[in-house]
Amino acid sequence: MLDEIRPHIAELRERLLKIVISYGVAFLIVFMNWQLVYGWMKKPLESAFNKAMIFTSLAEPFITALKISLYGGFVLALPFIMWQVWKFIAPALYENEKQMAIPFVFWGTIMFLMGVGFAYYVVFPFGATVLINFGGIEFEAMLKMSEYIGFFSKFMFGFGIAFELPVFAYFLAKLDLITDQTLISGFRYAVVIIFIVAAILTPPDPATQFLMAIPLIVLYGVSILIVKMVNPYKEEENLKEE
Q: Within a 10 A sphere around the Cβ of 138, how many other Cβ atoms?
């Protein structure tokens, strides 16, 4: 049995090594341009906060540059990472299932970027404006750069991953692992989970949470339609089996 597992362990080690190397290269590319990336990260905030951010420890600017490079490097390396993950699981699939590799990587990347774009241009500016102006003239905003980068990155990643839902639904349906009935029966639970995730990933104001939750519910509905076209629930066949 050990002899059967060894090739898979060797394959996994090779894929992980390639992922680490690609991520390291992407990290260095972003680190060498971290100020440009920082400017991009700060841009959605400009309408509500057009001042320099502060730092309260000597190493904070350097730590912030590292954070930006860690997050940015992952996004830059994401297509290659997804490709390596697919290459690892591909040997266990049938020939027709292996042909899904390129669409999986392509649409996975596209949907992630669409989620980030929606958060960047629509949700984040609105949420940031509400939060910064919440206290009116009673408070003066002084944002720490490291805290902002962490908050911004978590926000963008949350939307990016959430927008992967139709992609994963499609490929799970193609692999005959789910049907439209699977998603329909879990709709109520999905709505509850979506609002919990929205509450965790967005600022603590209802408007911003709804701006995340509503698109996710729509995406869930789109996923049901996609799965219905790919792998519809066959009631007659299930009745025969019973």
A: 6
Query: How far from chain centre, in Å, is Cα 233?
Result: 29
Dihedral, CA of residue 145, residue 149, residue 155 and residue 160, to nearest 10:
150
Within 10 Å of residue 222's Cβ, how many Cβ atoms? Answer: 13
pLDDT digits (tens, 9 = 90+) for 168-215: 888 888 878 888 888 899 899 999 988 888 887 776 667 777 877 888
Cα–Cα distance measured from residue 52 to residue 15, given in angstroms and rounded to the nearest whole number: 42
State the pTM of this model: 0.76
What's the CA gap between 191 and 49, in Å, rounded? Answer: 33
